[in-house]
Design the sequence.
């Protein structure tokens, strides 16, 4: 089977049919067990993820019921032996030969980093593009969550942005600056305080013979950072602005 968390949670059986869980509490239970796959998750932790600090009087019994329903769901998806096993002080989901999409995503990102270090930018770009194509939406969709899931969502969402940054860096090295301008304008609008995207946009514009537009991006991001945080842009942005003003030849793309 394949478990997909890079979007609304769903399970894909061996025949390629996908299934989702309608009950949110059981969905939360599966999400936590998948995040901690092959590790024991204590019953108390599961209670916190499902109910927060509003535990019902029969919370332990409720967990038993949800685990039973989850096992039936996974059995319908094609699991011959239930991967959810009772292990004191809680439960563990044994992944075995099953695939988790976020682990495949992380492997691709890791390979891409290796290619970047070795200056193999075509290969790096391919890895990062394949990694990003796996996403179907926000991590776990709109699932409500506690500390385990919240930490996971934050970490994976940040890794997705880092992957996007590295992809654009690789493509800038390949001379694709003109085709990146539109995408980078969208990214800077969506993430106005993420200075890496502004730096990349300035560089792409400068290499596209749009020096004035590049300097306007700097003016805009500087104003935003100053208004929001009372700070100046990072050194990388400041140095890039100076390089553009002096037409630093090192900013040109090396053919």
Sequence:
């Amino acid at each position: 089977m394949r478990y997909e968390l890079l979007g609304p949670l769903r399970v894909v059986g061996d025949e390629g049919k996908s299934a989702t869980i309608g009950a949110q509490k059981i969905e939360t239970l599966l999400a936590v067990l998948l995040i901690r796959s092959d590790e024991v998750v204590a019953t108390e932790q599961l209670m916190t993820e499902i109910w927060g600090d509003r535990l019902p009087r029969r919370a332990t019994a409720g967990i038993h019921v949800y685990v039973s329903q989850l096992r039936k769901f996974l059995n319908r998806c094609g699991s011959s032996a239930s991967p959810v096993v009772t292990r004191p002080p809680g439960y563990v989901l044994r992944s075995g030969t099953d695939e988790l999409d976020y682990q495949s995503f992380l492997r691709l990102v890791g390979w891409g980093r290796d290619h970047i270090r070795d200056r193999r930018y075509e290969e790096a770009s391919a890895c990062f593009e394949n990694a990003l194509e796996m996403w179907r939406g926000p991590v776990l969709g709109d699932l409500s969550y506690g500390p385990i899931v919240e930490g996971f969502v934050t970490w994976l969402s940040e890794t997705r942005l880092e992957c996007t940054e590295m992809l654009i860096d690789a493509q800038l090295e390949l001379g694709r600056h003109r085709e990146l301008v539109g995408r980078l304008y969208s990214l800077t609008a969506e993430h106005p305080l993420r200075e890496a995207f502004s730096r990349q946009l300035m560089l792409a514009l400068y290499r596209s013979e749009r020096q004035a537009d590049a300097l306007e991006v700097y003016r805009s991001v500087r104003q935003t950072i100053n208004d929001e945080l009372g700070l100046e842009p990072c050194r990388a942005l400041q140095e890039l602005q100076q390089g553009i003003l002096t037409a630093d030849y090192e900013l040109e793309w090396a053919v």
